[in-house]
Write a structure and sequence with these properties.
The protein is 54% helix and 6% strand. The protein has 210 residues and is mainly α. Strands 1-2 form a two-stranded antiparallel sheet.
């Protein structure tokens, strides 16, 4: 065959992170995991990541229109499988991820971490903390601030939570999630256009896109 696929990790543990850890230890930097009828290729070395994401990026598409997120977000930067269209969008966003811009996020990241710790400090000693949920909360807070310049309290008015269960084929659930996300995003865009018309400056990703 022209292409010899990497080894398949048969019967991996259900814990995804544990499956990655065991796969790396057993097979090295390139192996496969099977999800239903789909093979997922795991690459675990910077050189391989550079090959896929940079040197051959036009040969490796994004999630595509069949992915759960694409059914809600459309052909966005994460889901657009058309390379030329994706690259045009990527060029627009490039300046938001320069070193100088990322350095400006340091304070926002520090503040989000400190809020998380203060929240833990209010719990009783026998409380159980779900670290995955806590880290998701911190990530969401940062995204709202970096993209929309919204504080955690302000962000509560604009729900954009997208659970992994959007992979569902239930049209009603997908339609409801899309309706909620669209309402929040269009409301944020409308308000921002009004603020920009008044001469306000934000320096966030939304301003860059508009």
């Amino acid at each position: 065959p022209l292409f010899e696929p990497p080894p398949l990790f048969e019967n991996p543990p259900k814990d995804f992170l544990l499956a990655l850890e065991q796969g790396l230890a057993r097979y090295g930097n390139l192996f496969r995991l099977k999800f239903g009828y789909t093979d997922s290729y795991v690459i675990a070395h910077p050189d391989l990541a550079y090959e896929v994401l940079v040197k051959q990026k036009n040969h490796f598409g994004k999630l595509g229109e069949g992915a759960g997120l694409a059914r809600i977000l459309g052909r966005g930067i994460l889901t657009n499988a058309d390379y030329d269209s994706w690259f045009a969008h990527r060029r627009v966003l490039q300046s938001a991820f320069h070193k100088e811009a990322v350095a400006n996020w340091t304070q926002a990241i520090r503040d989000a971490g400190e809020r998380c710790v203060r929240r833990w400090q209010t719990l009783s000693e026998d409380s159980v903390v779900d670290i995955a949920e806590e880290m998701l909360m911190v990530t969401q807070e940062l995204l709202y601030e970096i993209i929309f310049s919204l504080s955690p309290d302000e962000a509560k008015k604009y729900p954009i939570s997208l659970p992994l269960t959007l992979a569902t084929k239930k049209t009603s659930l997908v339609r409801e999630a899309k309706k909620t996300v669209d309402a929040s995003l269009y409301s944020l865009i409308s308000k921002r256009r009004e603020d920009l018309a008044l001469g306000k400056k934000f320096g966030d990703v939304l301003e860059l896109l508009l």
